[in-house]
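A quick aside before the break. I want you to see a complete sequence-to-structure record at least once, exactly as it would be stored in a machine-readable document. Don't worry about memorizing anything.
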Amino acid sequence: MNTDLDAGFQDYNDEEHNAASYKSIMPHCGDDDESLGFNKSKSILDREDPYKRRRLNLVTSPERQDAFATMPKPETRGYAESMRKAALKREEQMTFKVIARKKKQEEEIKAAGNKWNRSWDDAKSSSDWDMPNLTHGIGRWDATPTPGRMDGYTGRKTSEVKVKNGTPQQRKTALRQLTDKDRAFGAGPLFNSILPLLMQPTLEDQERHLLVKVIDRVIYKLDDLVRPYVHKILVVIEPLLIDEDYYSRVEGTEIISNLSKAAGLATMIATMRPDIDNIDEYVRNTTARAFSFVTSALGIVIIEHGLNDENQKVRTITALSLVALAEAAAPYGIESFDSVLKPLWKGIRSHRGKVLAAFLKAIGFIIPLMDANYASYYTKEVMKFVLKVVKQCVSTQGVEADYIRTNILSEYFKNFWVRQMALDSRSSSRGRVPEVLGSILGALKAIVNVIGMTKMTPPIKDLLPHLTSILKNRHEKVQENYVDLVGRISDRGAEYVPAREWMRICFELLEMLKAHKKGIRRAAVNTFGYIAKAIGPQDVLATLLNNLKVQERQSRVCTTVAIAITAETCSPFTIYKW
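That is the input. The structure line, written in tokens, reads:
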């Protein structure tokens, strides 16, 4: 009897072991598609719309002639031939449109006729059985491979494949090899191998980034040797300018700027001119965008010598051209204007009349492109010269007082006084000088303590709304003094401020709960209690309860303390009733 029981238990244990073994080989995965192996495609083609996919239809043209070469290659294409090809393609497209339109009209006329007017032979349809038997020829897959028929991979091709698909260490080694031996490999073999890789439909973002990085380094090392291949590079790089990814657009901009500096303006214009009036709107769009970056990269270098020209009109026109370029490039591109800052700076000290006005205008448009520190310095220096010119003009004999009052005085106060005061006011509100702003708030707090709420000038109801914008300042001294001031007002003079203003301050005080300093958080929590005592706990509690959903633990803890202080201030009975 015991033997049968032991055998039964043994069978049961074997079945349980088998079931567990079957489950153990199955991977534990979630319900999402990614855990089952259906990962989201990272291909660039999958996230592009039909308009951007038209880049795959572009064909790289043959190599262009180098206008600066002594012996151009016979197989390359010149500027005149490129223009003829573009005109022929445009005429061919127009002919196809006319033929298609006529064919459509004929089909409409034929469809309008009676179907019974057709002969019996016209109605006869062909069948698959009427077709003759096809004899399949010998394909390239049926041929016996022989040694040496197919080209093997060279070191250059292997490096390009490693950059695209290799491990990080392999990519680093291959990139160094391509950069060091680019002149040995030659511009033609390099670009003819790299550019088709960028046109692959299965290309991913990371692979494109690495290949674009290779092109950027090769262009820098080859310099003027890239001139015959400018159009091929542009066909591949121009679609990056309209990509939805910001970093892809930046990469395309850098490549075109570096290509412009390496090939020169004449080569860029001769290469891109046939595509400006191309029949394809996609080509015209990308070419126009590329032209804008070519201009920003080379336009200043071309005209900067005009600032030192002997002719006064040339200097004036050059300065006004810089004004237009700076205005179009704002707020970026200060690196391109570095070479003209010194001539402009010397010019405003030596020129007079219209030339001085043009130079001052050019500096006035270039200063907004600078960083904050440099912009502040140059602005102060330029203002000195402007004020000096105004002072000299006003003190000159013959200048009438009425003219000064009507034409100069209003502009002077508008640009040098009113705007400066507005700038100081904005600096105080936004905390451009946080130490000063914190001291001002501390002084206001002391004045409120001494004078009291009833005798404040301006009144508390007018003062508090102007202080709300200071909450966005992240300086600890400003935050601490502001919270203390608001807490003092909410404790002693809450009835002078509307309830709607207190609720606006409550929403702004929630940001104070994220402060690093403990004293600021403690003062903000106590201020919630004062505000709840003034306007009632209902709205304040609704704001605090919604803030409990945030992810930051510190903010949730401070919110909980604020709720407790509100309950203590307004009594638990009131909170329970709400």
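Two observations worth writing down. Residues 459 and 550 are 36 Å apart (CA to CA). The chain is about 65% helix and 0% strand. We'll return to this after the break.
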